[in-house]
Amino acid sequence: MVEKWESALVLVGHGSTLNPDSSAPTFQHADEIGRRELFAEVYCAFWKEEPSLREVLRMVESDDIYIVPNFISEGYFTETIIPRELELTGPVTRRSGKVIKYCEPVGNDPRMVDLLLRRAQDAAPNVPREKTSLLIVGHGTSLNQKSAEAAQQQVRVIREKRLYAEVTEAYMEEPPFIADWRKNTSQRHVVVVPFFIADGLHSYQDIPVLLGIESDRTAAASQQEIFRRNPYNMDGRELYYASAIGTEPLMADVILDTVARFDRRHLCDVAA
Amino acid sequence: MIKDELARLITDGYNALGELGFAESSTGYRLYHWADRNSLNQARIYRSPKDAREIAKYDSSGAYRPLKGVPNLPRGWVLELPNINDLKTALDFFYPGAVATWLAFREGKAQPVCLRQTLNRQTGMYRVTGKLTDDQAQSLVKEACRSDSRCLRTILWGIEADHPPDFLPASKSDPTVDQTGQSRTTLPFLCLEACNLLVAAARTTVKKSSR
Ligand code: SF4
Predict the structure, then answer these.
(1) What spacing in Å lies between the alpha carbon of B153 and ligand 1's midpoint?
(2) Mean of the pLDDT values across residues A20-24?
């Protein structure tokens, strides 16, 4: 078990100026880890909300600080924005008597596969899996090549488990596109699981429109409706839409594992 | 520690921050909307600092408040907190980092960062903000950060390095001035660097003017 009574944990989320639920999973996991009293301090920081990445380190009083990005993959945010805004020089940054340890994004944790499978199971508990396509949907963007790579990696691992007749991926911003799911899946039952941290605007609004289960970008008020209406019967197919994995209670353990993994990998850098 | 310094400041008479008022009580500390200070017996009582996060999330019309410095905190609640640590946590949910930033600035451990430096650091969709002209920057900040309706923080950064924000009303960059316009003994609520909302607004300005 991770016990860091003299260290601080800073969970970094994207946050949003439009969607009040965007930061909820990050706060949820910070609350849970805080409740376990494993760290001296636990804070959240955001790119689009407060506390900002620029001010959070002023709030932290411990000299030993773990930064964990609550992001699904390496990419623009973890490689450019977070290091730049926090003025990090690498996995270990020493500044004004403090040691700042920059961990991998939570999405790199091997348990992501279990979380995706659990979401698929929850959304469609009774489908015959040997007659079902599992579609993992990610963001995918030219700015963030690795978000697609991360989704592909999940797909590969799940495919090897041979639980579903077919396991495949689709993206919002690059091919194979989500909108082409009919063409790109072969089975009568299709379970769609977003590989996203939060049920933000993408998973409530954009993806349902791309899948064709919503005609218009829905109002924030009807968000939960999307998941309650499963299955969607379309063109002789039965589609089940799952919520994002980021709100899984197990994510708190994934965050703690991410810290433990950092310690194992960077023991020598820190001791130097 | 920050909480000890906060306790000392309260003993010294500080009793306000932004739209908030606070005081020692028989059971610990009491935190409320300053405008409710004479009607706290009608306010709904909360006891966890985490309630502050939910209270600060929406304004009285139910609209989301992504920028915490906007003077539109809802009223009609009071937080009864057992100790200084919970008060500090609650203050950080209402005005994230405000107390820590003030203390760091006072000790010379945090300096303002000029707008140019913030904009020139941007990448991706915000890189264009580097094209914001001085005139555009001045009008934008005057409007987007005004204390009467947009943000209660005191701006200590200028447009260029080593230039004070002298294009703003003097009161907007004076940490001793109560930005709510009521001369309270208030903890300074500083803006040491343009926030992401202002950077996003700068992008909109540049995009509009290049059309
Ligand atoms: S730049 Fe500073 S003063 Fe202006 S809105 Fe953002 S936080 Fe408030």
Answers:
(1) 6
(2) 88
CA distance B203 to B105: 29
| SS3 label, residue A109 | coil
Across chain B, what does the average pLDDT equal? 97
Q: Do residue B145 and residue B173 come from a single domain?
A: yes
State the average pLDDT over residues B82-96: 98
Asked if B70 and A49 count as a contact pair (C-beta separation under 8 A), the reply is: no
Q: Using CA atoms, how far apart are residues B26 and A20, in angstroms rounded to an integer?
A: 35
CB A223 within 8 A of CB A204: yes
Q: Say if residues B145 and B202 touch (Cβ distance below 8 Å).
A: no
What the block records as the tokens of A174 is: 């690059």
Burial of A144 (0-12, 13-18, 19+ CB in 10 A): buried
Domain limits at A146?
A: 112-247
- The model's confidence at residue A221, banded by pLDDT at 50, 70 and 90, is very low
Among left, alpha and beta (phi > 0; psi -120 to 50; other), residue A73 is beta
**Does residue B83 surpass a pLDDT of 80?**
yes
Contact indicator for A231, A238 with CB cutoff of 8 Å: yes
Do residue A32 and residue A158 come from a single domain? no
d(CA A78, CA A261): 17
* 3-state secondary structure (DSSP) of residue B44: strand
Q: In what helix (H) or strand (E) does residue A114 lie, and over which residues does it extend? A: helix A112-123
End-to-end CA distance of chain A: 24
Please check whether residue B124 touches A, CB under 8 A.
yes
Q: What is the predicted pLDDT for the residue at A244?
A: 84
Residue B149 pLDDT level (bands cut at 50, 70, 90): very high
**Domain at B19, CATH number:** 3.30.1360.190
Helices and strands in chain B, H and E counts: 7, 7
Of the candidates B2, B193, B197, which has its C-beta nearest A61's C-beta? B2
- Using a CB-CB cut-off of 8 Å, the residues of chain A touching B127 are none
Does the distance separating the beta carbons of A18 and B195 come in below 8 Å? no
B151 lines ligand 1 (CB under 6 A): yes
Query: Which has the higher per-residue pLDDT, A195 or B52?
Result: B52
A131 and A205 inside one domain? yes
- B80 bridge partner residues: B30
Residue with tokens 């949910």: B93
Give me the domain span that covers residue B152: 111-209
**Chain B within 8 Å of A51 (Cβ-Cβ)?**
yes
Our measurement of the distance from residue B178's CA atom to the centroid of its chain's CA atoms, rounded to an integer in Å, reads 12
